[in-house]
Design a protein that fits this description.
The protein has about 200 residues and is α+β, with helices and mostly antiparallel strands. About 15% of the residues lie in helices and about 30% in strands. It binds zinc ion (ZN).
Length: about 200
């Protein structure tokens, strides 16, 4: 597991995983501006420790991380720190990853790509054990909390090529999924999932 830099595409509707060494910067680029990227991180030396949204909300005292905030694992240790964000700063930590059941409930017929299966495929490709499907950090996802605690599902507010940069606080496996949601307009009102990109350096 080298500290080499890498770049890649997160194909529309699909997942992609990579290793990042402690101290490396992971950039996630919203190439077309309207794509939600579900993001997970696992301790590379023990994947039963992973980025946890519920623990991170406690550590941060907020539901949307900003530059300077560290997200933590299920063992409450920092795993990712936001070091730069050229988007308007709208991301989501509340919603579960989409899965086959979500699409079945929405009325999809037959198999529908989903972030949960994308995570499993990416971890398998990395040769890493997947302990469970943690709740993801939903980059660029616009889920405002309204009055009486209601939430809404809105298109991203980021622009093409805007990005967020995260510092790895431990050796980790990071997995991205260009969310294939095309039945609710979280990936833009056109409901057409697109590619995104990442760079680790
Ligand atoms: Zn999804």
């Amino acid at each position: 597991m080298s500290q080499s830099s890498k770049k890649g595409t997160i194909p529309a509707r699909k997942g992609k995983g990579a290793f990042a060494a402690k101290g490396q910067i992971i950039r996630v680029i919203n190439t077309h501006g309207q794509q939600v990227v579900d993001t997970w991180a696992f301790n590379a030396h023990d994947t039963s420790e992973f980025l946890s949204m519920e623990h991170s909300r406690v550590a941060m005292g907020k539901i949307i991380p900003e530059v300077g905030d560290s997200l933590v694992t299920n063992k409450r240790r920092p795993i990712l720190t936001i070091v730069e964000d050229t988007t308007p700063g709208i991301h989501d930590t509340l919603l579960a990853a989409c899965d086959r059941y979500r699409y079945e409930l929405l009325g999809a017929k037959g198999y529908h790509d989903n972030c949960t299966d994308n995570l499993a495929s990416a971890m398998k490709e990395l040769g890493a054990k997947l302990p469970e499907t943690p709740s993801p950090l939903n980059l660029f996802m616009n889920i405002p909390v309204l009055e009486k605690g209601r939430v809404d599902f809105r298109p991203p507010v980021s622009q093409p090529d805007q990005y967020i940069a995260l510092r790895a606080e431990m050796d980790l496996f990071v997995v991205f999924s260009a969310c294939p949601q095309d039945m609710v307009p979280i990936n833009g009102i056109a409901c057409i999932p697109t590619d995104a990109e990442f760079a680790i350096e």
